[in-house]
Amino acid sequence: MIGRIAGRLIYRATDHVLIDVGGVGYLVHVSDRTLAGLPGNGEAVALFTDLLVREDLMQLYGFPTLVEKEWHRLLMTVQGIGAKAALAILSALGPDGVSRAVALGDWNALAKAKGIGPKIAQRAAIELKNKAPAVMAMGGGVMGDTDEIDDVVLEETAPTRARRPAKADPAPAEALSALVNLGYAPGDAASAVAEAATPGAQTGELIRAALKLLAPKG
Questions:
Q1: Per CATH, is 4-64 categorized as 3.40.50.720?
Q2: What is recorded about the protein's domains (predicted)?
Q3: Is 0.85 surpassed by the pTM of this model?
Q4: Fewer CB within a 10 Å sphere, N or C end of the chain?
């Protein structure tokens, strides 16, 4: 299993890139969002990867963070969602958007992805709801780091580093962990955190907002 590759980007297409690692070129399929965030040709790049093996096909898929990789794998467990459809969902929503949509049961958001119909979106929202807390708890995951890539480009006199993706906000994962530790069911806690989340909210603010949503009504 190839879980991560680090090398130099030498070619990009509409849905995949070619990365040179020690003289070997790896063709890696990526989402639109990932493609847009990659550096220019000739620059260093690192991606977490998942190898899809079938009888007549071997394809490598790449992700900037572990949480995005995990969502891709989980989405593929839903009947009707293959590797490309899972990438389409991640392209449309991003990993944070998928976490929010699944936690809230918002199948309409999932249906915005290219090739995802209402029935499949509803199935995904239902089947993955109980799995959302575990992925959300990963936060942004560990990002593909290019610090050690210089080792594979010794022939370059002045190797350049890849642009790093923006770090994910740790507040939702921290708030989710705190609520679960307080005794709330992971699914309920995830839904409350997803509903309460706002850009820039601190962990304490998010916990308080989620607790209000979780408080008994009446």
A1: no
A2: Has three domains with a flexible linker between the domains II and III and assumes an 'L' shape. Domain III is highly mobile and contacts RuvB.
A3: no
A4: C
pLDDT digits (tens, 9 = 90+) for 92-138: 999 989 988 998 889 999 999 999 999 999 999 999 988 888 887 77
- Residue 62: strand, helix, or coil: strand
Q: 66-131 belongs to which homologous superfamily?
A: 5' to 3' exonuclease, C-terminal subdomain (1.10.150.20)
Tokens of 108: 């309409």
DSSP output for 35-49: HHHS--TTSEEEEEE
Dist. CA 197–CA 200, nearest whole Å: 9
Kindly provide the b/e burial profile for residues 1-15, where b requires at least 16 CB atoms within 10 angstroms of the residue's own CB.
eeeebbbbbeeeeee
Residue 56 CB contacts under 8 Å (≥ 6 apart), including other chains: none
Domain ranges (residues) in the chain: 4-64, 66-131, 171-213
To which CATH superfamily is domain 171-213 assigned? Ubiquitin-associated (UBA) domain (1.10.8.10)
